[in-house]
Design goal:
Elements: H1 19-55, H2 57-72, H3 75-86, H4 90-117, H5 120-127, H6 132-140, H7 145-168, H8 180-187, H9 196-202
């Protein structure tokens, strides 16, 4: 804009902080939240999915009813309630996002494990006296790892968007940390006069 300089390529916010620098640091926060939440949620969901598929019966029924209950809840509202109780922080956001992610892994892993469980090599391992723990994690799990990796990769963007949404609503990463959602929220009151504050983090 007229009178501007190249010292700040994407402009500055209302406190004079460089937008580009804050976007870069915000990317670090978003990726840390995303990777941590996916690892925690994926581990819990995979374990429950293997357990439900292998044991079946009441274990399968209980786990899948809990999954159905979580899927029926409005995720953003649930996250806002949890954050309102425990307060916004980096670890609270990771915990909230992890609690929303595990259901997808549980359903996917259970579905594939039910097929693998009926194959001959699993039956041979059972006849040979292998424990349930060994069969689940030594024989079934390696055959669903590819699916878990694909699911985790696809969820990175969704987790970043969820974290940004919570931060935008004031229930995510607390200020003055440079979260993308916080940056967009800071710029919404200045969208007419200083559109770059919200535009570039939003992009």
């Amino acid at each position: 804009m007229a009178g501007g300089t190249t010292d700040h390529l994407l402009g500055t916010d209302k406190q004079g902080r460089d937008i580009l620098t804050r976007i870069i640091f915000g990317a670090r926060i978003s990726l840390m939240v995303s990777i941590s939440a996916i690892c925690i949620g994926g581990t819990i969901g995979t374990t429950l999915g293997l357990t439900a598929a292998y044991f079946g019966g009441w274990a399968d029924a209980i786990i899948m009813r809990v999954v159905d209950t979580f899927l029926s809840m409005p995720l953003i509202l649930l996250a806002l309630v949890v954050v309102a109780v425990f307060g916004p922080s980096f670890f609270t956001v990771i915990g909230v996002v992890s609690s929303l992610l595990w259901v997808g892994y549980t359903r996917q892993v259970r579905g594939e494990s039910l097929t693998i469980k009926s194959l001959d090599f699993v039956a041979r391992a059972r006849v040979a006296g292998a424990s349930a723990h060994r069969i689940m994690f030594r024989h079934i799990l390696p055959n669903v790892v590819n699916t878990i990796i694909v699911l985790a990769t696809l969820e990175v963007g969704s987790v970043i968007l969820l974290e940004s949404t919570l931060s935008f609503l004031g229930a995510g990463i607390p200020r003055p940390n440079p979260s993308w959602g916080v940056m967009v929220a800071d710029g919404r009151d200045h969208i007419i006069a200083a559109w770059w504050i919200a535009l570039f983090p939003g992009i």
